[in-house]
C-alpha cells in the first residue's frame, strides 16, 4: 500500500542539480513537489497552483530575490506555510523572525536525505501535533 502524505512542498533552488536531487528525495517520501529555480518563478508557481502549499523549501542565497524575502512574501499570501531554509553559507543569512506565526528551520548544505526528511516532517506536523507519516 502506497501512502500519499497529501502534503505539497514548493521547492526553490537555483542550482538545477541540487533542485532535482532534493525533489527526488521528497517525491520518494510521497510529497507532491512544485519546483522553481528562483523567487519570482516561485511566486508565479504559487499563484498558479490552486491547492494548499504546506511547506516552502528554499535556498537562502539566490539571484534577484533571496530566500528570506521569498519566504516573507509567500507567508503573507499563504498563512500557515512552513519554511525550511537550505544554504551552503551556514547561519550567515538566517532570519531571526519571519513575522506572524510562521514556523521555520534551517539546514546547511550538504545534507543527508534522512536529515532533510526529518526537518520536513517536523515542520509539517498536523495541527493536532501528530507527525506526518
List the SSEs and their pairings.
Elements: E1 8-12, H1 16-28, E2 32-36, H2 39-48, E3 55-59, H3 67-77, E4 82-87, E5 104-108, H4 113-123
Parallel strand pairs: 1-2, 1-3, 3-4, 4-5
Helix pairs in contact: 2-3
Structure description:
The protein has 133 residues and is α/β, with parallel strands linked by helices. The chain has one domain: Rossmann fold. Helices cover 34% and strands 20% of the residues. The chain has four helices and five strands; from the N terminus they run βαβαβαββα. It has helices at 16-28, 39-48, 67-77, 113-123, and strands at 8-12, 32-36, 55-59, 82-87, 104-108. It has a five-stranded parallel beta sheet with strand order 2-1-3-4-5, sandwiched between helices. β1, α1 and β2 (32-36) form a beta-alpha-beta unit. The protein is globular and about 30 Å long. It starts with 7 loop residues before the first strand and ends in a 10-residue tail after the last helix.
Note the total helix count. Answer: 4
The percentage helix is 25-40%
Rg result: 14 Å
How many individual β-strands?
Answer: 5
Strand content: 15-25%
Form type: globular
Question: What is the architecture at the second tier of CATH?
Answer: 3-Layer(aba) Sandwich
Tell me the major beta sheet. 5 strands, parallel
Strand order of the largest sheet: 2-1-3-4-5
Structural class: alpha/beta
Distance between the termini: 13 Å
The domain count comes to 1
Question: Which stretches of 5+ consecutive residues score pLDDT under 50?
Answer: 126-131
Q: Summarize the helix and strand pattern as letters.
A: EHEHEHEEH
Query: Considering the protein shown, what is the CATH homologous superfamily?
Result: Response regulator
What is the CATH topology assignment? Rossmann fold
The CATH class designation is Alpha Beta
Please, what is the average pLDDT?
86
